[in-house]
Amino acid sequence: MKQWRPLLIASDTPRYLEIAKAIKADIENGILAPGERLPPQRRIAQDIGVDFSTVSRGYAEAIRRGYIESFVGRGTFVRAEADMPERPDPRRALEEDPMMNMPPEPDDPGLMARMQNALSMISANLVPLLRYQSVMGTQHDREIAARLLGQNGVITPVEHLAITSGTHASLYAILMTLTKHGDTVLCEELTYPGIRPIAARLGLQLIGVAGDEQGISPNALVDAIHAHRPTALYLNPTLQNPTTDTIPNARRVEIADVLNQHGLSLIEDDAYFFVASNAPPPISHWAPDLGWHIAGVSKCFGAGLRLAYTRVPKQEWMGPFSQALRSTNVMASPISVALMGRWIEDGTARALQEFVRGAARDRQALAKMILSGCEFKGAPEAFNIWLNLPSGTSRAEVLARMANRQIGIMPSDAFTTNGDPQEAVRVCLGGPITMDQLRSDLIALKDAILRKDWLG
User: Fold this and answer.
1) Positions of E strands within 137-222
2) pTM > 0.90
3) Which pLDDT value is given to residue 89?
4) What do you get for the CA distance between the two ends of the chain, in Å?
5) pLDDT value of residue 91
6) pLDDT tens per residue across span 170-228
7) pLDDT at 169
8) What's the CA gap between 244 and 368, in Å, rounded?
């Protein structure tokens, strides 16, 4: 291994990007040859006097751009010319939506290499993966999905499991199976905004149930059942969007008891099931004949996969649910299903979980430090915080002051089921935003909230 070191040019460009550029320049100039192994990242960090994390991000960026590739246990190598991929399309790289609650994106070279290698491996079956397949997922794929659910503490019989093209597809199909136009569905007073347009399109009325930081009140749920005669209850029980609250075990049991007593179906949208490391068992565990449990893939492994693992409580509902899925989505993408399956089988899924959890904790800690003195709720592994604005500051003002910033901010209006929205905003900490940019935007957010003389 030659004693290569990147030549960095003094500029305002982040150092990790300069490292990626130096790798590209030395490949083009013949200093680094195809197949050549690069020095360990710690050695480079010592040689050029930067943090290890800076070099790690530089290598990761060079991997993303296709200059180098990394193999666990072997090291990082210059890609052979024949293996060089097409350059990333900048139009696609810029098409993220910062208003969505996204996970932190992986930047570890070894993890990225594992993710990419799995994609290469499933490409050997590209032609059959382009065919129509089972609307619920093949037996083999459902067995792999059940394995991942089991690794995360939930045992789901394969005959009750469906692989759908995302949580929204599952929600549509479940509501089409259970409800008819004009029915009422109960939910939390602050609820995931995605359920609102789905209910509206199906002609359903959403009614919020009062609660506290432990979740909806069992007594209030009983009252709502008597008052509205609902068809189902919709809940987001773990790292709730937007409040980041997780319903504790005892409250989950109480809610399940009410559901069982009244025979009310539960739609348990567990979007952060794979993110939270210490969440209690799903409420469906205590209401197995009534609970539809949706373990979405998007919030941990990538929204672009558009996958969700859905437990159907009764075998007699498999047929109607399958027909509803077919009429709206046909099937989940076999390519996405195969890629996720490969990640589960080779351990990449578990590694991604650990990365996302660690990165989320780092971002929550940063928000807690910078927004000291502000009133907000967060949780160690959540991707957002729920920020209550001080008296005299409106959510409209904050949104205007933070325009053109990369950080995603959504007003309380999007989440409010009943009554007038409170002066609060959801602040997203994940997605492609870097820690440096997040730090800058959080400082600007605090200034926008607390400065009364802000003329913006």
Assistant:
1) 161-164, 184-188, 205-209, 211-212, 215-216
2) no
3) 57
4) 54
5) 55
6) 999 999 999 999 999 999 999 999 999 999 999 999 999 999 999 999 999 999 999 99
7) 96
8) 14
DSSP H/E element including 267: strand 265-269
287 closest CA partner among 255, 315, 309, 316: 255
String of b and e for 293-329 (b: at least 16 CB within 10 Å)? bbbbbbbbbbbebbbbbbbbbeeebbeebbebbeeeb
Q: How far apart are CA 262 and CA 226, in angstroms?
A: 10
Tell me phi and psi for residue 396, to 5 degrees: -65, -40
- Could you tell me what percentage of the chain is helix, strand and coil, using 3-state DSSP and rounding each to the nearest 5? 45, 15, 40
DSSP state, residue 249: H
16 class by beta-carbon count within 10 Å (0-12 exposed, 13-18 middle, 19+ buried): buried
Q: What is the pLDDT of residue 456?
A: 45
Q: CA-CA distance, 307 to 319, in Å (whole number)? A: 20
Which residue positions in the chain have pLDDT lower than 70?
1-2, 81-98, 452-456
- State the pLDDT at residue 419: 87
Peptide bond preceding 237 in cis form (omega within 30 of 0): no
Query: For 39, which DSSP code?
Result: P
Residue 454: what pLDDT? 47
Q: Output the CA–CA distances (angstroms, integers) from residue 368 to 143, 226, 363, 406, in the order listed.
A: 41, 42, 9, 19
Cβ neighbours of residue 414 closer than 8 Å, sequence gap 6 or more: 193, 426
Q: What percent of the chain has pLDDT over 90?
A: 70
Q: 310 with 135: CB under 8 angstroms?
A: no
| In the block, residue with structure tokens 């659910």 | 149
Instruction: Report residue 428 as tokens.
Output: 């997203």
Please tell me the distance from the alpha carbon of residue 351 to that of residue 118, in angstroms, as a whole number: 13
- Report the C-alpha gap between 139 and 381 in whole angstroms: 32
Using CA atoms, how far apart are residues 305 and 339, in angstroms rounded to an integer? 9
CA neighbor of 324 nearest in space, from 198, 177, 178: 177
Taking alpha carbons only, the member of 437, 347, 409 closest to residue 117 is 347
